[in-house]
Design goal:
By secondary structure, the protein is α/β, with parallel strands linked by helices. It is 60% helix and 9% strand. α2 packs across α5.
């Protein structure tokens, strides 16, 4: 399975979510509702300015090579250009020095009676010129590596940061395999474009200009004209055919992205594949994508062969014309044998890099295509940006208010309807209800992964849309229902709640989460790696690591989203006691399906289809004999 860098197709953009404006009565205008759609979540709208505009992609890259705040890198960039120009100048001298040496040996030209010392001097000058030319090229490479690598790092870092700033809607609509390959191709494309442009395209352009001028002033305009026509014809043919065949490379990109995405998705869901014995089905799907790549690769190679043949014809024609023009002049005594040798040397010096220029242009063009998608990622707007000049959230107890909140992921499917409740500072509110009632959506709204359609969410009286998102999320700790861990050690995953925490702090958090003893029983203890997405641990173990991580974060507001759903009864009871201790004097929102985990909450809200059906304490709801009481008795009977 060998896959080349590819370019995945961008998903359909969706409307940018605007920043809502809260009204004086605590409600907000309905300005965050997404446009009506077919019901599928889509990514935020983006202009994708780089699509089909290689010049714009190159200009964007130039900004990273010429940083406004790095004068040292700018100086290195200029010195690189000077070294390249100097190298081409020395290279242009070598044929003339060699021609003079040939004439001196044959008793022609300016030195008909050259001494041995002069001949040795001319040969030495020839070698020195070549050495200086090569040395200048190496100096330019050494200088530019600082500029180029800094530019690659800057682009990759900015893209990585921007992806983390994009909305949850964007990431839910993306396929991780294709996205990661696009970034990988983009950074490799930058490196290749820089290498080809700096050390092939630019030097070759200098060489063409210098050689044409030498031929013009030393051998006449006809030589320069033939050279110019040959070069221009070569470039035009290369550009036209390359632009025509780029579609096959795009097909390779798309089909390889499809194959990679299918492979990654299938391997991540290894257990599911095994459960349903669908190995053959997965192989068939993967093979279908590979067949598409195979067809595109064959067409790509055939078109490449056509391009190379045409380039060879043009170069051969230019060589034959120039040599045919010079031979009669040598026989007529109009130019010397040394001049004839110099013309041949200049032709070789010009056409060898020119022949490579075709490859350089093709690969540079492809590198720009690979970069195009990565730069387009930077064009994607943040669906939920911070308000200009937004202050940090100020916690004063942590009172939480949902005031007449309406929300839906799409305009044609509303999830929450007039949701209105408050959690006093230091109190616990539980939200229960059947699957699909909107419980987890409330947590996403609290973290501001999405903005409300109507209404407002406040923390200590502050509209969360008016504060910095980073400060908002620093104040909230969550234990999610589906815990995903990094492919690193247990210690790293717990410390993720507070990266600067000491090992002692990590151990204390693990003890509170009732996982310390389990970790000590492992051969590598806290240095045990948890595997991809934490799959080396059981669901309960992963959830306890997540609880420890949240304990270590020490937030002002806690959100438990089915925090003990993957635990056995005994462990659940132990962790419930720990969670109760951790959440004491903190504002706590508990989302649960098992009612036994919320009996001690100060207030319980029963959701039904995004609406509040019942509310009150556990005892009050039981006495009311409504939906809550029915579910309670059903779960108690099941437990017994």
């Amino acid at each position: 399975m060998t896959a080349k860098p590819t370019e995945p197709t961008a998903n359909t953009p969706a409307q940018d979510a605007k920043d809502a404006t809260a009204a004086a009565d605590g409600s907000a205008a309905k300005d965050s509702r997404p446009a009506a759609s077919d019901g599928a979540s889509s990514a935020p709208r983006a202009s994708y300015e780089h699509d089909g505009k290689p010049w714009l992609t190159a200009f964007t890259l130039l900004r990273y090579l010429w940083p406004a705040d790095r004068s040292r890198l700018r100086l290195l960039f200029v010195l690189t250009g000077l070294a390249i120009l100097m190298g081409q100048a020395f290279l242009a001298i070598t044929p003339m020095v060699f021609a003079t040496a040939v004439d001196a040996v044959g008793g022609e030209g300016r030195f008909p009676n050259a001494s041995l010392t002069l001949l040795i001097g001319l040969v030495t000058a020839f070698g020195l010129a070549r050495l200086l030319a090569q040395g200048s090229q190496e100096i330019s490479s050494a200088l530019f590596v600082f500029v180029g690598q800094n530019g690659i790092r800057s682009v990759a870092l900015e893209t990585f940061r921007h992806l983390h700033e994009l909305s949850l809607r964007f990431h839910l609509g993306r396929q991780t395999g294709g996205l990661s390959r696009a970034i990988e191709r983009g950074t490799k494309g930058i490196e290749f474009v820089l290498r080809m442009t700096t050390f092939n395209l630019v030097p070759t352009t200098f060489a063409i200009v210098i050689v044409s001028l030498i031929l013009l002033f030393n051998f006449g305009p006809l030589y320069a004209a033939i050279t110019f026509v040959t070069v221009v014809g070569y470039i035009i043919y290369t550009v036209m055919v390359t632009d025509w065949r780029i579609k096959y490379r795009r097909m390779m990109n798309e089909t390889d992205s499809e194959a990679t995405t299918k492979a990654v998705d299938s391997l991540l869901n290894y257990e599911t594949v095994k459960y349903f014995s669908n190995e053959v089905h997965e192989a068939t799907r993967f093979n279908g994508a590979l067949r598409g790549y195979e067809r595109a690769a064959v067409n790509n190679q055939l078109s490449l062969s056509l391009l190379n043949i045409g380039q060879g014809v043009i170069i051969a024609a230019g060589l034959v014309l120039l040599l045919s023009l010079s031979v009669p002049q040598v026989l007529a005594g109009e130019i010397t044998v040394g001049d004839f040798v110099a013309i041949q040397a200049y032709l070789i010096q010009l056409y060898l890099p020119l022949n490579f220029l075709g490859f350089a242009y093709r690969e540079t063009r492809q590198g720009l295509v690979d970069m195009e998608y990565m730069f387009n990622l930077l064009d994607v707007d943040r669906e939920i940006p911070d308000s200009p000049g937004a202050p940090a959230l100020k916690i004063d107890g942590g009172q939480l208010d949902f005031q007449m909140v309406n929300f839906g992921y799409n305009d044609d499917r509303q999830i929450l309807h007039d949701l209105d409740f408050s959690v006093e500072a230091g109190k616990t509110l539980a939200i229960v209800g059947p699957s699909g009632s909107g419980k987890s959506t409330i947590g996403r709204m609290l973290f501001r992964f999405y903005d409300v359609w109507d209404g407002v969410i406040r923390i200590d009286g502050q509209d969360i849309r008016r504060v910095q998102q980073a400060s908002l999320r620093e104040a909230i700790g969550i234990v999610p229902q589906d815990t995903v861990l990094f492919n690193d050690t247990i210690a790293y995953n717990i410390a993720y709640g507070r990266p600067e925490a000491s090992l002692e702090d990590v151990i204390e958090a693990a003890k509170l989460a009732q996982i310390h003893d389990f970790i000590l029983d492992l051969p590598e203890g806290y240095d045990t790696r948890v595997g991809e997405r934490g799959l080396k641990l059981s669901g309960g173990e992963r959830q306890r690591v997540s609880i420890a991580r949240t304990i270590l974060k020490d937030p002002s507001i806690l959100l438990f989203d089915e925090a003990t759903s993957a635990l056995d009864t005994d462990t659940e009871s132990a962790i419930q006691a720990s969670l109760a201790a951790v959440s004491r004097d903190r504002t706590t929102l508990v989302i649960a399906h098992r009612l036994s985990t919320v009996v001690d909450a100060d207030e319980i809200i029963v959701l039904d289809k995004g609406r509040i059906a019942e509310r009150g304490s556990h005892q009050v709801l039981l006495e009311r004999a409504g939906v809550y009481a029915q579910v309670w008795h059903s779960q108690q009977e099941a437990d017994e």
